[in-house]
Design goal:
- This protein is mostly helical and 524 residues long.
- It is 67% helix and 1% strand.
- It is built from 27 helices and 2 strands.
- The chain has a two-stranded antiparallel ribbon.
- The longest helix has 20 residues.
Length: 524
C-alpha cells in the first residue's frame, strides 16, 4: 500500500493537482543497478518531475514549519516507494530538502518505511554537501529500519573520498560490520580500492591493499583497480610494477587491464612537439603488440584510446583514418569513439566535418551523449558564437530529443553567456536547468556569483550566494572572499552586514526537524 504523509495546510487546488499527479504516475519499483555504488537511475516520471519542481520552488529554509512538504501532506496525497526514491534523486542538489522529505515520510506512524534506495539517495545528497554528521544520522536511522546495506557504506565512503577525507572513508568501511551484521567481503573491499583510485588516492589504496591482502585474496579485479589508480596519477612505473606482481602471482591480465595501461600511457603524455607524440604512439603500439602476443585482441576501447591521443594532438586526418580503419575491420564504434573524433574535429575548427559525423552517428543508431554535444558548445564558446550555441541548445531540449543537456552543458553555457554580458540569456538557461532538476550544483552557483561580481552586479551576486547556502552548498573560500572584497571595495559594508545577518538567521532558524541530524550551519 502507498504511504500517506501527515495532513497539513496548503492550497486546495495545488493539493488536488499533486494528488492527481501521484495517482496517475505510480510505477513499478526501479531496479537497483548491479554495481555496488550505483544508485537507482533517474527514471522518466512526470509526477516526480512536477513534485520536485514544486518543492524546489516553494521550500523556504528560514521557515521549516511552512515547508512545501505540506503540499504533499495536505489532503492525504499518497506516495509510493518508487515515487519517493525518484523525488529524492531529483533533489540531490538540495540536501536539506531531501532530508526533510525523508524525515517526514519516515516518522509517519501508519506509513511503511522508506525503501533502502531512499536512504542511500539522501546519504549521497548530504555527502555531496559535506554534511557528514547528518549523513551518519541517516545511516543510523536506515540501520534501525533494516535498510542499511553495503551500498549505503560504499556511497558514504565515496563522498568522504571525494571530500579528501580518506581516513574517514576507510573507517566507514570498517564500521560496516556493526550495522550490516557481517564483515565486508572481497567485492566490497575492491569497491573501496576503486573509489580511492578513481579520486586519485592510489597511495592510500596501495597501503590498504598491502595491509589486508592476507585477509582478502588478491584477484584480477583488485590488481586492475590499482593499476588504474597509478595510471590516473601518471605513475606508469608503479602500474608496471603491479602488472609484474600480478603475473608473478599467476594472475593473467585481461583486455581491461591492458586498456587501462594503454590509457595510462596515452592520457597524460605530453604530445608536443611531434617527437613526443611519436614516442607516445610507439609506446602504445608496443603495448598492443604485447597484448596480441598474449592472445588478447584489442577491442573498441583500445582503438578509442588511440583515437583520443590523435584528438589531443590535434591530428584530425589520423583520427579519421583510424576511425575508418576500425569500421573496415568490423569494429563498431561506440559513443566514446564518435565523441573523441568529433572533439578532435571541433577543436581543430572543422565544425562542418564534426556535424557530418554527428549525423552519421545518429544514422548508425548510436545516440549522441551530452558529452558529444558539449564538444560543439566548447568550440562555440571559444568562438563567442552565441547564435549557434543557442540553436544547438534548443535542439537538445526540444520535445522528442533523445539527448537532454546535462549539468556540464548548462555550466558551459552559463559561463559563456555571463562572460559575454548576456545575463538575460544566462538566467533563461538557469531557469531551464532548475526546471530540468539536473542541477544546479556548486559549480553552477560559483559561476554565477563570480560572474556577477566581475560585472559588479552585487545584488544578484548576494542573491545567488545566499540561495547557494540555503540549498545546502558550502561556497568555496575564494567565492566568499571575492564577494566580501567586492562589497567592501564598492563601499557596500551595509549590504555585507545584511548578508551576514541572513547567514546567521539561516543557522538560527533552520527548524526543529533537523536537530537530530547535526546539520552544520554555514560558517566561514
Amino acid at each position: 500500500m502507498p504511504s500517506r504523509l501527515p495532513a497539513g495546510g496548503g492550497s486546495a487546488a495545488r493539493i488536488a493537482a499533486v494528488r492527481l499527479l501521484c495517482t496517475a504516475a505510480a510505477a513499478g519499483e526501479t531496479p537497483s543497478l548491479p554495481h555496488l555504488l550505483a544508485l537507482p537511475p533517474v527514471a522518466p516520471s512526470p509526477a516526480a518531475d512536477e513534485l520536485a519542481r514544486l518543492l524546489l520552488a516553494h521550500h523556504n529554509p528560514f521557515h521549516p514549519a511552512e515547508s512545501p512538504l505540506q503540499i504533499l501532506s495536505g489532503g492525504g496525497v499518497s506516495l509510493t516507494g518508487d515515487i519517493l526514491v525518484q523525488l529524492l534523486l531529483r533533489l540531490r542538489g538540495a540536501s536539506k530538502l531531501a532530508l526533510s522529505l525523508l524525515h517526514a515520510a519516515r516518522l509517519h506512524p501508519s506509513a511503511p518505511r522508506p525503501p533502502a534506495d531512499a536512504y542511500d539517495a539522501v546519504v549521497d545528497a548530504l555527502g555531496r554537501a559535506r554534511q557528514f554528521d547528518a549523513a551518519w544520522r541517516v545511516l543510523v536511522d536506515a540501520a534501525a529500519d533494516g535498510a542499511a546495506s553495503p551500498r549505503t557504506f560504499a556511497v558514504l565512503a565515496r563522498r568522504y573520498v571525494a571530500a579528501g577525507m580518506t581516513r574517514q572513508a576507510v573507517r566507514a568501511f570498517d564500521d560496516m560490520e556493526a550495522f550490516v551484521g557481517r564483515e565486508p567481503d572481497a567485492g566490497e573491499f575492491a569497491t573501496l580500492l576503486d573509489t580511492l583510485c578513481k579520486y586519485k588516492y592510489p597511495k592510500v589504496a596501495t597501503e590498504i591493499f598491502n595491509k589486508r591482502k592476507y585477509k582478502y585474496e588478491p584477484n584480477e579485479k583488485m590488481y586492475t583497480i590499482l593499476i588504474y589508480g597509478w595510471c590516473k596519477v601518471n605513475r606508469s612505473d608503479m602500474a608496471q610494477k603491479f602488472l609484474q606482481d600480478m603475473l608473478d602471482r599467476g594472475i593473467e591480465p585481461n583486455t581491461v587491464t591492458y586498456n587501462i595501461l594503454l590509457n595510462g600511457i596515452c592520457r597524460h603524455a605530453s604530445l608536443h612537439p611531434d617527437n613526443r607524440f611519436d614516442r607516445t604512439v610507439h609506446a602504445a603500439e608496443d603495448l598492443l603488440k604485447q597484448m596480441r602476443d598474449r592472445g588478447i585482441e584489442p577491442d573498441v576501447t583500445s582503438y578509442s584510446i588511440i583515437l583520443h591521443v590523435y584528438s589531443r594532438a590535434h591530428k584530425p586526418e589520423l583520427c579519421l583514418c583510424m576511425f575508418r580503419s576500425m569500421k573496415e575491420r568490423g569494429i563498431c564504434p561506440t559513443v566514446a569513439t564518435y565523441t573523441s573524433v568529433i572533439k578532435c574535429l571541433a577543436s581543430c575548427g572543422r565544425l562542418e566535418d564534426a556535424e557530418t559525423l554527428l549525423h552519421e552517428m545518429s544514422a548508425e543508431g548510436v545516440c549522441p551523449s551530452p558529452a558529444t554535444y558539449n564538444c560543439f558548445f566548447k568550440e562555440y564558446r571559444g568562438r563567442k558564437d552565441m547564435s549557434s550555441a543557442l540553436h544547438l541548445y534548443n535542439k537538445m531540449k526540444a520535445p522528442g530529443s533523445q539527448t537532454a543537456p546535462d549539468i556540464h552543458t548548462y555550466n558551459i553555457l552559463l559561463g559563456m553567456f555571463i562572460r559575454l554580458n548576456r545575463h538575460g540569456t544566462a538566467m533563461e538557461i538557469w531557469n531551464d536547468m532548475c526546471e530540468s532538476t539536473v542541477g544546479p550544483d556548486l559549480d553552477s552557483y560559483t559561476l554565477l556569483v563570480h560572474g556577477f561580481c566581475d560585472c559588479q552586479k552585487w545584488r544578484e551576486a548576494c542573491q545567488f550566494f545566499m540561495e547557494m547556502i540555503e540549498k545546502g552548498f558550502l561556497p568555496q573560500k575564494i567565492t566568499f572572499e571575492t564577494l566580501y572584497r567586492g562589497l567592501i571595495q564598492a563601499d557596500m559594508l551595509r549590504t555585507w552586514r545584511r548578508l551576514k545577518r541572513r547567514v546567521d538567521e539561516e543557522a538560527a532558524k533552520f527548524g526543529d526537524e533537523f536537530k537530530l541530524y547535526h546539520i552544520k550551519a554555514y560558517k566561514r
